[in-house]
Amino acid sequence: MKTLPKARILVTRFPYESRFGGEEVHTLRLMEELDDRGHEAFFLGSCPVLLREFKNRGFSTKRAWLGKPPVTKGWLLLFTLLSPILFLKAGLMLGRTRKKWGVDTVYMLSFGEKLLMTPWARLFGMKVLWLEHARIGKWLTKNPWWRIYRQWSAWATVVVTSRAMLRFVEPWAKKVVAISCAVMPSEARPLPKEIVEFLKGGFSIGSVARLTADKGVDILVHLVDSKPDVRLIIVGEGPLRGVLEKKLAGGQIMLVPSLSRGQLTSFYRALDLFVLASTKFDPFGMVAAEAMSVGTPVLMTNVCGISEDLVADRDALIVEPSRSELDKALKKVLRHPELLRELGEHGRQFVEKHYRLETMVALFEGLLW
After folding, report:
1. Cα dihedral: 57, 58, 61, 63 (round 10)
2. What value does the mean pLDDT of the chain take?
3. For residue 6, how many other CB atoms are within 10 A of its CB?
4. Which of 295, 267, 291, 290 is closest to 204 using CA atoms?
5. How many whole angstroms separate alpha carbon 128 and alpha carbon 138?
6. Exposed, middle or buried by CB within 10 Å (0-12, 13-18, 19+), for 115?
7. 276 forms bridges with which residues in the sheet?
8. Where are the alpha helices (DSSP H) in the chain?
9. What's the predicted TM-score (pTM) here?
10. Are 106 and 12 in contact (CB under 8 A)?
11. What tens digit of pLDDT does each residue of 100-146 get?
12. SS3 (DSSP) at 42
């Protein structure tokens, strides 16, 4: 049997801002699994989160600066003015990294390095993967660099994390493939006592989301109005925190800034219902899939990418992204709690079958050869 060559993968990220979230979890777990299969991964970039996490996992890393991506007016101007210098620096940086680590594949996460590094990777004979985790918005559609993005995409394979994203990315890139995220639950860890006690106070609803309007968190807090037996916990931070805190006085709502991965597993299990109330397109909706994986019934809006894979009212409750439709669905399960058990079981079975880690890794591995 012929032995296939192993890849040496350079992960790059020069972000506008950095935080530990779904994109980072996906990247780290994928590289760990590829490493277990004999491939090697390295990290180059300015992202403090991935620099730390890659180093902690024993991967070789290199801190480097290549500006920030041109996704704001300020950085669009700076990036454009500095682009000749940044372009040459990107080539020098990639050439040195290729020589030092022998990398043959570049796995690019940020908009900036896709514009600056892709031609050099092509020149050096490297395979190029572009990962698109984020919603396609004005950062690309109204960006004067979109033409370069589209032109350079001919030299890359653009990977999106759900089938739902294909229709948003295909108009802007030439070769796009969908590889659904795998659900990777962590071993359960105990929840803080105050959360456990709070959830005992009634029918428990939970969500994990950035506190922004596009995540529908303002709608969520209204769902508990006139429902004194309902308790809502939202895990996340964001600009709407101050607004939401005004709703805490009634004792039905709790805001939790963050939980560890293991605590999130316990959080999902402790809920009667998990809700992802996104009002704008959400590329996948990993937190909903994680909740489903432990058998927790899920209510989501139909703009969540995962919703296109599911059968409504069997695998999850799926509704239009409006307060009235979410409220109607919640009232339905409050009147008919027997529905929750079936939703939870079907959701768990779906995730186990379709969002397997082995499948995701195998599909990515296929792109390396």
Report:
1. 60
2. 94
3. 15
4. 267
5. 24
6. buried
7. 300
8. 22-36, 48-56, 73-101, 111-123, 138-141, 146-152, 166-169, 193-199, 217-223, 241-245, 261-270, 286-293, 323-335, 338-354, 357-367
9. 0.89
10. yes
11. 999 999 999 999 999 999 999 999 999 999 999 988 999 999 999 99
12. strand
**Quick check: 278 and 199 in contact, CB under 8 A?**
no
Sign of CA dihedral 149, 155, 161, 165: positive
pLDDT band, residue 4 (cuts 50/70/90): low
Q: Which residue has the tokens 């020098």?
A: 92
CA–CA dist 230, 102 (Å, integer)? 57
Nearest alpha carbon to residue 270 among 198, 218, 214, 178: 198
Contacts of 231 (CB under 8 A, 6+ apart): 198, 199, 201, 202, 203, 204, 205, 224, 252, 253, 254
Residue 185: what residue type? P
Residues 314 and 185 sit within 8 Å (Cβ to Cβ):
no
Write out the two tokens for 55: 């180093």
How is residue 192 annotated by DSSP?
A: P
Query: Torsion over CA of 250, 224, 208 and 129, rounded to 10 degrees?
Result: -140
Lowest mean pLDDT among 11-15, 18-22, 199-203: 18-22
The pLDDT of residue 2: 46
How is residue 92 written in tokens?
A: 């020098």
CA–CA separation, 202 and 223 (whole Å):
14
Pair of tokens at residue 331? 């009232």
Is residue 321 within 8 Å of residue 303, measured between CB atoms? Answer: yes
Tokens at 259, concatenated? 């939980």
Note whether 322 and 329 are within 8 A (CB).
Answer: no
Is residue 248 within 8 A of residue 254, CB to CB? The reply is yes
Task: Give SS3 for 337.
Answer: coil
Helix 286-293 to helix 22-36 angle (10° resolution) is 60
Q: What is the DSSP letter of 292?
A: H
- Cα(284)–Cα(160) distance, integer angstroms: 9
